[in-house]
Protein backbone atom coordinates (compact mmCIF):
# COMPACT_ATOMS: atom_id res chain seq x y z
CA UNK A 1 0.00 0.00 0.00
CA UNK A 2 2.89 2.37 0.71
CA UNK A 3 4.21 1.85 -2.82
CA UNK A 4 0.77 2.61 -4.30
CA UNK A 5 0.44 5.83 -2.30
CA UNK A 6 3.97 6.82 -3.22
CA UNK A 7 3.25 6.25 -6.92
CA UNK A 8 0.02 8.26 -6.65
CA UNK A 9 1.95 11.16 -5.11
CA UNK A 10 4.57 11.03 -7.87
CA UNK A 11 1.87 10.83 -10.55
CA UNK A 12 0.01 13.84 -9.15
CA UNK A 13 3.25 15.81 -8.76
CA UNK A 14 4.19 15.18 -12.38
CA UNK A 15 0.71 16.14 -13.61
CA UNK A 16 0.81 19.34 -11.55
CA UNK A 17 4.33 20.22 -12.68
CA UNK A 18 3.58 19.74 -16.37
CA UNK A 19 0.35 21.75 -16.15
CA UNK A 20 2.01 24.55 -14.23
CA UNK A 21 5.12 24.71 -16.43
CA UNK A 22 3.10 24.74 -19.65
CA UNK A 23 0.53 27.33 -18.53
CA UNK A 24 2.08 29.15 -15.56
CA UNK A 25 -1.22 28.71 -13.73
CA UNK A 26 -1.47 27.12 -10.28
CA UNK A 27 -5.18 26.49 -10.95
CA UNK A 28 -4.51 24.54 -14.16
CA UNK A 29 -1.68 22.60 -12.53
CA UNK A 30 -3.90 21.71 -9.58
CA UNK A 31 -6.80 20.70 -11.83
CA UNK A 32 -4.54 18.47 -13.90
CA UNK A 33 -3.09 16.91 -10.75
CA UNK A 34 -6.61 15.83 -9.75
CA UNK A 35 -8.25 15.07 -13.09
CA UNK A 36 -5.50 13.36 -15.07
CA UNK A 37 -4.78 10.54 -12.58
CA UNK A 38 -8.51 9.84 -12.25
CA UNK A 39 -9.00 9.68 -16.02
CA UNK A 40 -5.85 7.59 -16.38
CA UNK A 41 -7.18 5.11 -13.80
CA UNK A 42 -10.41 4.63 -15.77
CA UNK A 43 -8.47 4.33 -19.04
CA UNK A 44 -6.22 1.69 -17.49
CA UNK A 45 -9.23 -0.31 -16.28
CA UNK A 46 -10.82 -0.22 -19.74
CA UNK A 47 -7.50 -1.14 -21.35
CA UNK A 48 -7.15 -4.17 -19.06
CA UNK A 49 -10.70 -5.32 -19.86
CA UNK A 50 -10.07 -5.00 -23.60
CA UNK A 51 -6.72 -6.78 -23.28
CA UNK A 52 -8.33 -9.63 -21.34
CA UNK A 53 -11.05 -10.03 -23.96
CA UNK A 54 -8.51 -10.02 -26.77
CA UNK A 55 -6.53 -12.70 -24.97
CA UNK A 56 -9.67 -14.75 -24.32
CA UNK A 57 -10.77 -14.42 -27.94
CA UNK A 58 -7.36 -15.52 -29.21
CA UNK A 59 -7.31 -18.48 -26.83
CA UNK A 60 -10.75 -19.59 -28.03
CA UNK A 61 -9.80 -19.19 -31.68
CA UNK A 62 -6.55 -21.11 -31.22
CA UNK A 63 -8.21 -24.03 -29.46
CA UNK A 64 -11.04 -24.36 -32.00
Describe the structure.
The radius of gyration is 18 Å and the shape is elongated. The protein is mainly alpha-helical. Helix 1 crosses helix 2. The protein contains two helices and no strands. The protein is 94% helix and 0% strand. The model has no long low-confidence stretch (mean pLDDT 87).
Quick recap:
This protein has two helices and no strands. It has helices at 2-23, 26-63.
SSE topology:
Elements: H1 2-23, H2 26-63
Helix pairs in contact: 1-2
Distance between the termini: 42 Å
| Beta-strand content estimate | under 5%
Estimated helix fraction: over 70%
Give me the number of helical elements.
2
Q: Radius of gyration in whole Å, from Cα? A: 18 Å
Sheet with most strands = none
User: Could you state the order of secondary-structure elements as H and E?
Assistant: HH
What's the mean pLDDT score?
A: 87
Number of strands: 0
Class of secondary structure makeup? mainly alpha
Global outline: elongated
Spans with pLDDT under 50 lasting ≥5 residues? none
Keywords:
64 residues, 2 helices
Amino acid sequence: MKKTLSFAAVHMSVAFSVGFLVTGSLWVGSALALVEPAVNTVAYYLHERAWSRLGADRGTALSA
